[in-house]
Amino acid sequence: METMRERFVSTTQSLLGSDPRLAVVLADISADAFEPARRQYPRRVINVGIREQLMISVAAGLALEGLRPVVHSYTPFLIERPYEQIKLDLCHQDVGAVLVSIGASYDWAAGGRTHQAPGDVALLDALPGWTVHVPGHPEEVETLLRAALPGRDRVYLRLSLQTNAAPHSLVPGRFEVVRRGRRGTVLAVGPMLDGVLSAVAGQDLTVLYAATVRPFDAKTLLATLSEPSIILVEPFLEGTSAHAVTSALTHLPHRLLSVGVGRAELRRYGTAQEHEAAHGLDARGLRERITSFLNA
């Protein structure tokens, strides 16, 4: 199956010809994939080399000149390393860009801690004005990217090798109601949906699917709520969206279980699937935690 990264590259390259505002800024990652586009649009496809802080600063400069920069790299090199430039060059100057990461929390677990970044969305949560998309399928990448490019705002698109089996017809910014139940609500973010559905098979639960987590769609959560027991399943740092759930339900006594990547560092790197199991994010782990929460 085509990967999210491949769909991002092909979609972006096709849009460079029709949108003169669009520019791509790289720091070596995926430079080979964008080389045909760089030859065709050398002033709008820029590789700064392994200088991630400069990558963000160049994007901010392009945005100040009226372009729509798409900035792309591995998650820790896109969010963690140039965080000060994101804070100052983009947020403080109040200019927009579309940041597109690959690698997610631990897609290449064997690459070591340098290539793992489960805290990326939590970091962006500390800054104002970000829309955060977490697609669960390559087709959703194209939908969310095309929706983001016409604007001038700040958008983060988090790609992963982990995917759901089928795409969903997204309305960017809205949760999708996958099914309805009476014992509580599970909010599954991006590629966690298939595992969640397997884990809660036979349980009387509402399942919501979120491919956009910021802004947080409190309206759909409230409109579909039956029992105020919420289970939040995210493919990044555990509890990242807990404050958003709590804010949405401020007026209502509720219980919340946050499931995600644990804070403890796993020093035996293994595979992405082994990390998923170690953090209790595979179907078995999810089933155990959700059942225990519901029966408590």
Automatic annotation (TrEMBL):
<dbReference type="InterPro" id="IPR029061">
    <property type="entry name" value="THDP-binding"/>
</dbReference>
<dbReference type="InterPro" id="IPR051157">
    <property type="entry name" value="PDH/Transketolase"/>
</dbReference>
<protein>
    <submittedName>
        <fullName>Transketolase B subunit</fullName>
    </submittedName>
</protein>
<feature type="domain" description="Transketolase-like pyrimidine-binding">
    <location>
        <begin position="2"/>
        <end position="167"/>
    </location>
</feature>
<dbReference type="InterPro" id="IPR005475">
    <property type="entry name" value="Transketolase-like_Pyr-bd"/>
</dbReference>
<dbReference type="Pfam" id="PF02779">
    <property type="entry name" value="Transket_pyr"/>
</dbReference>
<dbReference type="InterPro" id="IPR009014">
    <property type="entry name" value="Transketo_C/PFOR_II"/>
</dbReference>
